Amino acid sequence: MIYDVVIAGAGPAGITLALELSRAGLRIALLESGGEAFDPDTQALYDGEVTGNDAFDLTAIRLRMLGGTTNHWGGHCLPMDEIDFRRRPLNGMSGWPFDRATLLPYYARAHDWLRIGPFDYGRDIGAGLRERDFLLPNEARLETVPLRLARGPLRFGDAYGEALAGASNIDLQLHSNVTGLALDGDDRMAGVEVAGLDGSRRRIEGRAVVLACGAVETARQIMLANAAHGRSFGDAGGLLGGCYMDHPTAGAGFLHLAEPTPVKAYWNFGVESAEGTPLRYLWRLSDAALEAEGLVNAQFFLIPLSDDSAERAREREARRADRALRSIAKWATGRPDRGFQLSQAYCDFITNADSFAAQTWTDTVHGGTRARRLLLKFESEELPEPSNRVTLTDRRDALGLPLPALHWVPGATERDSMIRSATLIGQIAGAAGLGRMELEDYDRPFWGTTTSWHQLGTTRMAANPREGVVDPDCRVHGTRNLYVASGAVMPTNGRANPTLTILALTIRLADHLKAEVPAL
Amino acid sequence: MRLLSRRALLWGTVGTLGAVTALGAGSLVACNRRLAEADPREAAVRLAEALPEVFAPRRLAAHWHEGGQPEALLQALQSRPAMRRALAADCPASRRALVRAEIAADFAAGDICIVDRLVVSRTEALVASLCRRYV
Has residue A468 got a pLDDT over 70? Predict the structure, then answer.
């Protein structure tokens, strides 16, 4: 059987793409390496080396099972900013081949898949919030902006498993690992080669092939195909696997507040939009400030952090007890969390009950702990550097495929931008009488950053084949029918958590394939 | 017979206003002269009462060495309008308010410095550094 579209990877992009295409009546093969539950042997296929800022493990930050990495994500959703599309990266690489307005209708549709309400990111979407709930009014350089949380956080395998099973034109094949791309002629994919850990092998054919398996695995698959067939699909500019981007994250500094401050929107985890989507509020420098100062984009979470270690410990223990109590409540109402154990939850609550009681008393009588110091935690845009890249190693996985190696070093431009951004925030806070900023120590290795678990950019989009790997339609340069649905195609990554943008790009690709596949 | 002619009223008003202006200006000049002649120790003692407006003054004083000698520190402070008035103010509350205003003005104008990773106004650094020498 020849499918209309073969999709490799059943994470959020693969599942959304399959269901979008299904509505158009196309026949879809949706291939997933894992099953419905976590399996250590399958997960081990995600092994690989990390060099540079290597304090993470490739087998830990992604998940190889139905629903993909949404099985352990945070659910943060927000679109990229206008400036991310308008300007080129500060290192001179190419930027997006279209503007933000092009993505807006797809962002709105992505909201439906993520179940996060209407596409509205105005500061005032928080129900019941007043001006006093914010630390500063929006001004020319510093903005308070919300992000939306996909409640749960939404696990795509659980959320859309029934829809996949119920779609007669979607053939979901679990435990099916793509081991190669089958070529038909010079530039056309016949389908994919598939293997199981049980030793089974088969070919699945389609009129179009879509790689939807994340930035590292997608680049790896194209590299393997190029090596197997002696081609250089998507690699005319030597950028296949390059320009890997994360959102380097660390503390930007502490804001010492002039006055003990009651709960504000930034650390009030009960704020929701009018239709009931949980919200988080954060700071960002305005587009105008970023352009005027020549800074990379970034977002800043404001986290109260007492300088009293006993108080911090009490708050931590109280949160642990609160989580335990909530998970017991969910279990009691028939909605248990994944991996829930009653004995463990009960023990967690009882052990921390004293701190929970003390914190509840503080919250009730004094209106919550008053913050005296805020940690500003940044998540920074990362410039697309060709040297940050995925390559293949000599080591092989259980299927006999070369394992990937990832080299990742956050750059000096981003570091200097964070120092300047935090200083500017300190200046604004000082002028407003809000407090004083104490910058973090940026002289630590990799300026203290770690991964945000966002893997992006290894098959970057560009109209010119020498500047990117896929074209503006997400088709791999040099091929007729090989596509990528992943954050791997992003030429720049702004500050926004990427899932919403990945889904918007995926829906845009779905519309393209609906029109294109009949002619392929 | 009129007791007060219109001309007399006019000249009287002008004269009174002139006298008040001259008195005020003279006071300011005298005050400035006094300040110009004031020694750094006296200024430090007066500003010490406004130290609560300065963030982490000991830490700033220990790590900020760009202001130079006390005379230079005082001169830099006197070049700032609100600080000149603060140094002249007899009321400690007024002095604190003026120091606070000058600090806010520094931040608004971007006249800041980074001292031991703290983002502070230049006035804060100057006041902390001057006070440390004598107080």
Answer: yes
Interaxial angle between packed helices A100-114 and A12-23, expressed in degrees from 0 to 180 and rounded to the nearest 10: 90
Task: Tell me the per-residue pLDDT of A487-519, one tens digit each, with 9 for 90 and over.
Answer: 999 999 999 999 999 999 999 999 999 999 988
Count CA atoms within 13 Å of residue B92 on its CB side: 8
Cα–Cα distance measured from residue A151 to residue B109, given in angstroms and rounded to the nearest whole number = 43
Give contacts of A431 with chain B, Cβ < 8 Å: 104, 107-108
The reply to whether residue B119 touches residue A440, judged by beta carbons under 8 angstroms, is: no
Residue A446 gets the label, from left (phi > 0), alpha (psi -120 to 50) or beta, of left
Determine, for residues B118 and A441 on separate chains, whether the beta-carbon distance falls below 8 Å.
no
Q: Locate all alpha helices (DSSP H) within A141-213, ordered by sequence.
A: 156-166
Which residues of B are less than 8 Å from A423 in CB distance? 112, 114, 119
Indicate if the pLDDT at residue A184 is higher than 50: yes
Counted across chains A and B, CB pairs separated by less than 8 A come out at: 42
Pairing assessment for the beta strands A435-439 and A402-408 based on DSSP bridges: unpaired
Mean model confidence pLDDT for chain A: 95
* Residue the block writes with tokens 């951004």: A421
Per-domain residue ranges of chain A: 1-78+153-247+384-410+453-520
B112:A427 CB<8 A: yes
A266-295 residues touching B, CB cutoff 8 A: none
Distance from CA of B66 to the nearest CA of A (A): 19
> What is the ipTM, given to two decimal places?
0.85
Q: Which residues of A touch B110 (CB under 8 A)?
A: 427
What is the spatial distance between Cα B88 and Cα A459, in angstroms, rounded to a whole number? 67
CA distance A310 to A84: 42
pLDDT at A350: 84
Burial call A308-325: b when 16+ CB within 10 Å, e when fewer:
eeeeeebbebbebbbebb
Residues in B touching A441 (Cβ below 8 Å): 117
Task: Answer yes or no: CATH 3.50.50.60 is held by domain A1-78+153-247+384-410+453-520.
Answer: yes
Mean pLDDT for A98-102 is: 98
pTM exceeds cut of 0.95? no
Grade residue A414 by pLDDT with cuts at 50, 70 and 90.
Answer: very high
pLDDT at A329 over 90: no
Looking at the DSSP assignment, which residues form a beta bridge with residue A205? A2, A191
Can you tell me the mean pLDDT for B94-119? 96
